[in-house]
Amino acid sequence: MKVLIPVKRVIDFNVKARVKGDQSGVDLANVKMSMNPFCEIAVEEAVRLQEKGVVSETVAVSIGPIQAQDTLRTAMAIGADRGLLIQTDADPQPLAVAKLLAAVVAEEKPDVVIMGKQAIDGDNNAAGQMLAALLDWPQATFASRIEISGKTAKVTREVDGGLQTLEVTLPAVITVDLRLNEPRYASLPNIMKAKKKPLDIKQAADLGVDMAPRLKVVKVTEPPKREGGVKVADAAELAAKFKAAGVL
Amino acid sequence: MAVLIIADHGDGHLREATGKTLTAAAKIGGDVDILVAGKDVEGPAAEAAKLSGVRKVLTAKSDALGQGIAEAYQALVVPLMANYDALLVPATAQGKNIAPRIAARLDVAQVSDVVAVISADTFTHPIYAGNALETVQSSDPKKVLTVRASAFADAVTGGSAKIESIDAGAGAAGTKFVSDEMVKSDRPELAGAKIVVSGGRALGSAEEFHAVIEPLADKLGAAVGASRAAVDAGYAPNDYQVGQTGKVVAPDLYLAIGISGAIQHLAGMKDSKVIAAINKDPDAPIFAIADYGLVADYKTAVPELMTALNALK
Ligand SMILES: Cc1cc2nc3c(=O)[nH]c(=O)nc-3n(C[C@H](O)[C@H](O)[C@H](O)COP(=O)(O)OP(=O)(O)OC[C@H]3O[C@@H](n4cnc5c(N)ncnc54)[C@H](O)[C@@H]3O)c2cc1C
Ligand SMILES: Nc1ncnc2c1ncn2[C@@H]1O[C@H](COP(=O)(O)O)[C@@H](O)[C@H]1O
């Protein structure tokens, strides 16, 4: 059983994004970049499945600039067997990401794709569902529990109102949510080991995929600022404020 | 121009998000139809037909649709889209599950979490945990949007659209429903509530969360929310998580108790009308956006607030 794990290099979740003065986008110069946290959860899950003997091979793939090699090394330090960079300086939108990943799937022939539910830069929550659609595979999104046996995966999903469990026939796309697992810290020896694992680089442009952006960015602006900071003395004053604001 | 909305409904009723999505659709213009798909469609369809500005209501009935299986929605909606220029779906977990799948089969982009419709092809949506608002213009022949309901006004009633039942389409061969584990609650739904009381890591246990947050919510007639830390620790169900990667709410009053105010949490509640916070750390980031901050231990502050609220009534 082979797992493909798409991982994205994004702004670190601890950093507050700043809008550029010319409204052309978000300023990423000199900003700390990391693996998208949901992708980290996906890698951890694939590695745990491999440690349990359910999975025999784990391949991490990232679409992005040359620096995304670091993200792949992080995936390999957690335990992925090898890395594949689909290099491009364009920042492909989810549909193009899905098409590129579909091309990678055609080549790698994984039994399951495990990926993040959402990249915390664009917050689109779309690429996994789109990939499943293009491949005509079943999908199980927002997973908080994954059990794979034989040709099926039993996936518990975080849905509106609670949890739902589905059984999907493999091959399938699974996107992961926060409660699936807690990713390990990569140990120093594993970080060293990851440096020696194979990392292939392909040019996105060579995959024969239509990557043209369908959405043109008109502008990126700052949201309206909230003026907070008023303190009340005690609970009675807080209750009085609620009443005065007419919210009760 | 014709727009299709996939309704959000449950327990035999239309949810508010559907009407708010209709308000967004009206800004695009043209004829608007609402699709009510699921197992129990008659009640919500009758309610949808009463919304003003709806041309017709389509109903499609099957178990797979009722279970929210994305492949079943793909089979139903992709052919329907031959008759429409835009598909709008409330950005609920279910909407997020199905809309991108339909968009990809139509070979068009999706604009996620739309908060403003600028024109029929230009939309604004938050990115980077709401720290930036991106306005995009779509060059696709058809538009697929998920709509952040809390950013749009309620729909008006007074319509009398005709209801038409359509074939539910194929099921989903590769996907089998196993079970559901739904949270039962008599409180208002988090997404549409006028008041939300949320608890964070400070609560320390599920018992404490029940004992402190829920009675206060009931006193205020509020829905209950939680931070990710509280959900991860098992104090509250996953469905309660407010934030960048949970639910986005914009009630008249949001009261955060023992929540620090990480950017991921703020992303889900900073558009509330009034924000109040109780936190024992005077430097907690939540205070920077709270209209009313009370620096106190919740253990004493919440009982005092209950007493003060009783006295007001
Ligand atoms: C990919 C990703 C997605 C995320 N998505 C979300 C999301 O959707 N929603 C979300 O909420 N978070 C999300 N987070 C997590 C977020 O970064 C924070 O970790 C989380 O919001 C913290 O929860 P908290 O405020 O309850 O806990 P803490 O940050 O630990 O804050 C607890 C607060 O309680 C106060 N306190 C302690 N004891 C008392 C007391 N007795 N009385 C009063 N106050 C007290 C403390 O002063 C502190 O401010 C996400 C993180 C990542 C990486
Ligand atoms: N550039 C990328 N490279 C690799 N994987 C990606 C990329 N963009 C998105 N993904 C995957 O798709 C998931 C959802 O992303 P999104 O739809 O952009 O929110 C992410 O968690 C990744 O697993």
Q: If helices are DSSP runs of H or I spanning 4 or more residues, what is the number of helices of chain B?
A: 10
Regions with little confidence, pLDDT below 50 for 5+ residues of chain A: none
Structural class of chain A: alpha/beta
What level of helicity do the residues of chain B show?
A: 25-40%
| Main sheet record of chain A | 9 strands, mixed
Average of pLDDT of chain B: 97
Question: How would you characterize this protein structure?
Answer:
The complex is a heterodimer of chains A (248) and B (313). In chain A, 28% of the residues lie in helices and 31% in strands. Chain A is built from six helices and 13 strands. In chain A, the strands form two sheets. Chain A has a nine-stranded mixed β-sheet, with helices on both faces. Chain A starts with a strand and ends with a helix. Chain B has 313 residues and is α/β, with parallel strands linked by helices. In chain B, the strands form four sheets. Chain B has a seven-stranded parallel β-sheet, sandwiched between helices. The longest helix of chain B is centred in the C-terminal third of the chain and has 15 residues, at 206-220. In chain B, 59% of the residues are buried. The chains are: A alpha/beta (248), B alpha/beta (313). Chains A and B meet through helix 3, helix 4, strand 7, strand 8 and strand 9 of A and helix 4, helix 5, strand 7, strand 9 and strand 10 of B. The structure holds flavin-adenine dinucleotide and adenosine monophosphate (AMP). Flavin-adenine dinucleotide sits between chains B (200-202, 227-230, 241-246, 258-260, 262, 264-265, 268, 278-281, 284, 297-299) and A (13, 37, 120). Residues 6-8, 36, 38-39, 62-64, 94, 97, 115-116, 118-119, 122, 124-128 of chain A line the site of adenosine monophosphate.
